[in-house]
Amino acid sequence: MDQTKVAVLGAGSWGTALANVAAENGHAVKIWGHRVATVDEINTQHTNKEYLGDRVLQASIQATTDLVTAIEGAEIILSVVPTKATREVANLLNQALTQLQQKSIVVAATKGLEPSTYKFASQMIAEEIDASSLAGIAVIAGPSHAEGVIKHDPTTVTAVSEDLVVAERIQRVMSNSTFRVYTNDDIVGAELGGALKNVIAIAAGALQSLEYDANAKAALFTRGLNEMAQLGKAYGANPMTFMGLAGVGDLFATATSTHSRNFRAGMQLGAGLSKEEVIEHMGMVIEGISTTKVVHDLAQAKQVEMPISNAVYQVIYEGRDPKIAIRELMDRPLHHEGK
Ligand SMILES: NC(=O)C1=CN([C@@H]2O[C@H](COP(=O)(O)OP(=O)(O)OC[C@H]3O[C@@H](n4cnc5c(N)ncnc54)[C@H](O)[C@@H]3O)[C@@H](O)[C@H]2O)C=CC1
Ligand SMILES: O=C(CO)COP(=O)(O)O
Q: Is 5 a catalytic residue?
């Protein structure tokens, strides 16, 4: 395969895992991180212990705190910072691309919605970066815990862009025999799926800690997926996207695994911890906590019934006892399954 220059913005668990995939594929990879200690560790020890334990990274990966150095000549730039940093980082990226007079494909691997605007990562990137510096915008979505990717568990994701040529370029660069990349053109559906499944994963963690069994989990998955798809419909997303990797696939991975920060957060909330305690214990981004608030507001604005997401909202933001929230879900007026 031809060698492509790939830059990864964000030296957390997902950014480091994606950088490692690209480096394993023989590409020239630079990671931009804002913490000197992490950058030094990646360059000298080839590890990122805080996020990925003892896993050894490809020695060819270079890390830097200098954004211009990181992106210079990069055909593909992966933005892998949390939602709350995405606009700020996209703004810095715009300045760096302008300084270099460079045009790159920018790919968001972030799963969330900006609280103040309800925008997805790809939309923030489109707003912050001059069109003249963009060779395309895409997202990477799907069931892909960094911890599994780094140890070569067979993993499938989808590269999504309105421009399928761009999606196919990412597919070729990132695919290998343990990391299989599909393509899709439904960017709204993929980003909604990636964000909304985190809310349902929090609920799944709560069910787990309350020791509810398969019936309750199946109910949560099925009805949770239904409300994800209902909001998708209001956004004009392709309903089939919710049946794919970015929808049911990511929901399954996130809502069944203790690798998931959202699932673990749900377990802690189910055990009676407050939102503040959960955030402090985790030390890593739990996107679903702020997404729950955004989804609560969005569902009202779009007049979409999202009872499970609403129950998660009540538990996180109003201190509702999870057992009572579940009971209230079960006691709602009966209706047709298709609603
Ligand atoms: N961890 C995973 O397995 C996966 C995560 N994601 C998504 O990827 C995004 C990032 O998640 P993780 O890597 O897991 O988070 P993380 O908490 O492991 O790492 C986030 C990284 O971003 C850095 N960061 C935060 N603010 C920054 C700023 N203003 N400028 C530069 N760097 C900044 C942090 O220092 C940290 O290195 C999230 O939206 C998450 O939903 C998506 C798929 C898988
Ligand atoms: O999106 C993910 C896996 O596909 C990661 O989920 P968490 O952020 O809950 O760890």
A: no
